[in-house]
C-alpha cells in the first residue's frame, strides 16, 4: 500500500507540477492579455481624441461652408445689381444714339438750308451784276441821255445800294 501511496503521491506531484506549469503559462498569458488590453485601451483613447479632433474639424468646415454659401449669395446679389446697371447703361446708350441721330438729321437740314441760301444769294448777285451791267451799258449808249436821266440813274444806284445792303444783312444773319 505504501507503494501505491507513493506512486499516487508521485503522480499527484507530477500533476501538480504540470498544473503549476499550466497555471504559470496561464498567468503569463493573462499578464500579456492585460498588457495588450492596456494597449487597446490606450489606442481607443487615442482614437477617441482623434475622433473629437475630426468632429471639431467637421464643425469648422461646416461653419466655413456656411460662410462660403453666404459669400456666394452676396456675389449673386451683386451680379444682379451689375446686370441691372448694365441694362440701364444700354438704355442710356440707346437714348444717346437716338439723340445723335436727331442731331445728324438737324445738321443735314441746316446744311441743306445753307445750300439753298447760297444758291439764292448767287442768283441775287447774278441779278445785281446784270443790273449793274445794264446800268453801265446805259452810260455807254449816249452822253446826252446820261445827263438828262441823271435823276433816274441816281434813283437806280440808290435802289441797287439798298438791295446790296439788304442782301448783306440777310447773309450776316
Description:
This protein has 173 residues and is mainly α. Helix content is 98%, strand content 0%. It contains 3 helices and no strands. It has helices at residues 2-141, 143-148, 150-172. The longest helix is centred in the middle third of the chain and has 140 residues, at 2-141. The chain is rod-shaped and about 200 Å long. The model has no long low-confidence stretch (mean pLDDT 84).
Count of separate DSSP helical elements: 3
Taken in chain order, the helices and strands follow as: HHH
Residues in helices, as a percent range: over 70%
Mean pLDDT: 84
Based on CA atoms alone, the radius of gyration comes out at 64 Å
State the low-pLDDT regions, or none.
none
The helix-and-strand class reads mainly alpha
Name the shape in a single word: rod-shaped
**How many strands, which pairing sense, and closed or not: the largest β-sheet?**
none
How many angstroms separate the termini? 166 Å
By DSSP, the count of extended strands is 0
Strand content: under 5%
Amino acid at each position: 500500500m505504501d507503494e501505491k501511496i507513493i506512486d499516487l503521491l508521485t503522480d499527484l506531484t507530477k500533476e501538480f507540477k504540470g498544473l503549476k506549469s499550466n497555471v504559470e503559462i496561464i498567468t503569463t498569458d493573462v499578464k500579456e492579455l492585460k498588457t495588450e488590453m492596456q494597449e487597446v485601451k490606450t489606442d481607443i483613447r487615442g482614437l477617441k481624441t482623434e475622433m473629437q479632433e475630426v468632429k471639431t474639424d467637421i464643425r469648422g468646415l461646416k461653419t466655413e461652408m456656411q460662410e462660403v454659401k453666404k459669400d456666394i449669395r452676396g456675389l449673386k446679389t451683386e451680379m444682379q445689381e451689375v446686370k441691372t446697371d448694365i441694362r440701364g447703361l444700354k438704355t442710356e446708350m440707346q437714348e444717346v444714339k437716338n439723340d445723335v441721330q436727331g442731331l445728324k438729321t438737324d445738321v443735314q437740314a441746316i446744311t441743306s438750308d445753307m445750300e439753298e441760301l447760297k444758291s439764292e444769294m448767287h442768283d441775287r448777285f447774278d441779278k445785281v451784276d446784270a443790273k449793274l451791267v445794264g446800268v453801265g451799258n446805259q452810260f455807254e449808249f449816249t452822253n446826252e441821255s446820261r445827263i438828262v436821266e441823271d435823276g433816274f440813274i441816281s434813283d437806280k444806284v440808290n435802289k441797287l445800294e439798298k438791295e446790296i445792303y439788304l442782301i448783306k444783312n440777310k447773309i450776316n444773319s
